[in-house]
Specification:
Distance between the termini: 23 Å
Radius of gyration: 24 Å
Largest sheet: 8 strands, parallel, barrel
Number of domains: 3
CATH topology of the largest domain: TIM Barrel
CATH superfamily of the largest domain: Phosphoenolpyruvate-binding domains
Number of strands: 21
Number of helices: 17
Helix content: 25-40%
Shape: elongated
Strand content: 15-25%
Structural class: alpha/beta
């Protein structure tokens, strides 16, 4: 089974997509990666979803990626008398660490980390930016603010502090417990929320210990100040536009999105664009034209994957949303402008043997019109470098490592195949030719390109390229 597109689809599972039948339908509709949102649900529910996905994987004989998304620290106000209050622009409003029920004059904000970072003039955004407060004065346990933009404030609404590096870990105690459980289930990707700095990635990597790949969610403007270093430290990036849009002006988000994508492509790191991509399909069977254009724009930019959140998790049309995403991607990739844009935005190869080989493989494939590049890789590094080139040819990734085969479905253009380990050059060529034919990427007497790192059986950089001819019947 193969997809007829390069960009991948991440589908979030939830109440609308928790049964075997629904998850299997989502997979056949086009979902390459399934996201488990640990902000919701209990362990038993996530465990059952993983069981179902792995059963579908066995049935389809195609590796499927599972991503667990950690909640991260959620900053919220306390509760109010009657459940809500109305704040008026120009009034003063207090915040403090006490647990007393909130009124129209003050509220509990049980996060000492916020007060430690506040100073006069700092803005606080409440309820996804609907309300704005400006700090007039502050202490270690309280702050006096002026309401700049008023409105209704109800129980436990979220708080954002734009432009401030909060002295807080990206991993809460809940995240640590969730992480250990998710890793025990064998998830392939761990999405880390609230990343502000490279040290957040290092902390998570110390806990994961190589059992999964890390994907840093960029949802804080402070992370953009450390973008290049964060990209270097992590295995992939998710552009969480909705959260970014709360803490920065809406008109800034598109250019930030493109900057993140360019940086990821330069370093050969997979990049996912997420949040509200087909949001109207939560309640409608078709998206708006603007949403379809939004998805297409990400594809033109060369992203590895686009993600569905509520559309597939809790919406009324989860399967239709995946099918629509698949249709938009395929239509966009058939446009001649798409290939031109990929070629124009291709980063220069680094001065390494691996990049020299993969760049040459793309060029050779183009020159002699080869339909498939087959990569051999224990760790996936050879395949990632091939995908960085965004070749016109398909990429078939052969690996004897199951964990490698399972993380690669997130990567642009890659069709992952679990295979036996090879120990000789001739065996490598024979295995590559057989796999290309078996997976319907090549026919008898056609040429294929093979890249690998030698010596075989050891992880290392790509250092070999071979043009091989598939033998006839």
């Amino acid at each position: 089974m193969r997809r007829s597109r390069n960009a991948k689809i991440v589908a979030t599972l939830g109440p609308s997509s928790s049964s075997y039948e629904k998850i299997e339908s989502l997979f056949h509709a086009g979902a390459d990666v399934f996201r488990l949102n640990f902000s919701h649900g209990i362990f038993e529910e996530h465990q059952e979803k993983v069981r179902i996905i792995r059963e579908i994987e066995q049935k389809a004989k195609r590796p499927i990626s599972i991503m667990m998304d950690l909640q991260g620290p959620k900053l919220r106000v306390g509760t109010f008398e009657g459940g809500k209050v109305i704040l008026k622009a120009g009034q003063t409003f207090g915040l403090d660490l006490t647990s007393a029920i909130g009124t129209s004059e003050r509220a509990s904000l049980p996060h000492p980390e916020i007060f430690a970072a506040l100073k006069p003039g700092t803005d606080l955004l409440l309820d996804d930016g609907k309300l704005r407060l400006r700090v007039l004065s502050c202490r270690s346990d309280s702050a006096e603010t002026e309401v700049v933009i008023g409105g209704e404030l109800s129980n436990r609404k979220g708080v954002n502090v734009p432009g401030v590096m909060l002295p807080i870990s990206a991993l809460t105690n809940k995240d640590r417990q969730d992480l250990e459980f998710g890793l025990s289930l064998g998830v392939d990707w761990v999405a880390l929320s609230f990343v502000q700095k490279p040290e957040d990635i290092q902390e998570a990597r110390g806990l994961v210990q190589g059992r999964a790949k890390l994907i840093a969610k960029l949802e804080k403007p402070m992370a953009i100040l450390h973008l290049e270093e964060i990209v270097k430290q992590t295995d992939a990036i998710m552009v969480a536009r909705g959260d970014l849009g709360v803490e920065m002006m809406p008109e800034e988000v598109p250019s930030i999105q493109k900057k993140i994508i360019r940086t990821c492509r330069a370093y050969g790191k997979p990049v996912v664009v997420a949040t509200q991509m087909l949001d109207s399909m939560v309640q409608a069977p078709t998206p708006t034209r603007a949403e379809a254009s939004d998805v297409a724009t990400a594809i033109y930019d060369g992203v590895d994957a686009v993600m569905l959140s509520a559309e597939s998790a809790s919406g009324q049309y989860p399967i239709e949303a995946v099918k629509m995403m698949d249709r938009i991607i395929r239509q966009t990739e058939q446009d001649s402008v798409y290939r031109q844009m990929l070629d124009d935005s291709r980063p220069e190869p680094l001065d390494t043997v691996a990049d020299a080989i993969t760049a040459a493989a793309r060029q050779v494939a183009h020159t002699i019109n080869v339909s498939v590049i087959v990569t051999f890789s224990e760790t996936g590094s050879t395949t990632l470098r091939a995908a960085r080139e965004r070749p016109e040819s398909s990429i078939v990734a052969l690996t004897p490592n199951l964990s490698t085969a399972r993380f690669l479905p997130l990567v642009w253009g890659v069709h992952a195949v679990l295979t036996e380990e090879v120990f000789s050059f001739s065996q490598m060529v024979e295995t590559a030719c057989k796999a290309a034919v078996a997976e319907n990427f090549a026919k008898a007497n056609e040429q294929i390109i093979v890249t690998a790192g030698v010596p075989f059986g050891a992880s290392g950089g790509t250092n070999i390229l071979r043009v091989a001819k598939v033998e006839g019947d």
